[in-house]
Write the structure tokens for this entry.
Amino acid sequence: MTVKIWNFFPRQALYECYQCARCTGSCPALEVAPALGPRETILKCLNLGHDQVVEDERLWVCCTCNVCEDRCPQKIPISDLLVALRNSAARRGNIPDKLGIAIELLAKTGRSMIVHQLDEMRAHHGLEPLLPVPIDEIREIFKKTRLDEVIEF
Amino acid sequence: MKYALYLGCAIPIKYPGFEAATRKVCERLNIDLVDLPFACCPPPTSLKMVHYDSWLALAALNLCLAEEQGLDVMTLCSGCVNTLKEANHTLKKSDSKRRKINRILEEQNHHYKGTIEVTHILDVLYQDTVIERLIKEKVRDIPVKIGCHYGCHYFRPPKIMYPEELSESESYVPVRMDHLLSIIGMEPTEYSRKFLCCGSPLGANADQDAGYAIVKEKLRHIREREIEALSVICPSCFEQFDMGQIALSRKFKDLVKVPTFYLTQLIGLSLGMSPKEVGTDVHRVKSKKLLESIGIS
């Protein structure tokens, strides 16, 4: 099942973009890596349709810093668009390996860090052991939200 | 003043020193903290990008845990505050999303009502009563030229994070950490790219070297202003600067390293705590020399 991305993002907002590239000029990721960049992402959504964009691995080369949206003179909710596109991409199997592993850990343990010899390390700083997370509840919630359709856990 | 302490994952697991410093500082400043069995926030940089509904549902569970105790949430991380504030905002505003999430949560005996607020330790410390107490309790100044790095998710998008602070052009530039540090005798110094990303999410999700390239560029501007140390309010930003400088110095031998502190460590030092008490002894980029030069050991 694909995600209907226009439920997340008002499609007509794409037409507000006049391709000034202030977003892309501000993008810290694009400066150091082969990112798609917000301007090109919007243009491709308009010209080729989002189906083509979500196949592109470069969609994930992003800091999620929201500077693009911050500086957009047309106030296009670019970060909502990027969340929608990536949710759709992940569903089609376009997701970086590192990120997939991180989500699997989160779904299995309720935390995004591996807990290893933690009590000792916390004691060094005079801290009590960390409270356990309600992992059964979390797994039930993720089953209900159908996370397993995207990431096996 | 009482909050549910939302630790997140990175601080209690990777940087417990920040937690220790925070707890001690809050005790001295009369801020009561309550521990609850919170789960991962989850991060705006990971689960939200992959599965929005799961992101919103887990955030809602965390909000419920605090709401059931009638407590506002205080976070220690720019990522956690972004997730929990945005989820709180979205669930309060959208009847349909709240209904959908509550159908899921009710099977686990939770019900999100939308009666609490989410805040960050920086904003808690920035309140008048806390600052008055800090001025009274402070035993020493920390005369160091400091560069503040806020972390993008702490204040972006401002329409959700700080709607009441928006200028006419609907932009917002944070200043609270700079102000707070000047109260403990530090010299907050502006630098180019101050409000741009540290590179952490790029490193975590896509390309570690590209993430460190962003740090390198930021450091160039930081050293240009002869800044002696950095202050952050996010464990991911901290790791990016602390580990990042170690990784970069293997490649670039002449790299001059700048020690990085978590905000409450600096506040703790000004309250008379030792570097070990606030946990700076385990940082990779050492601050011993810098602190000794101003008589703190």
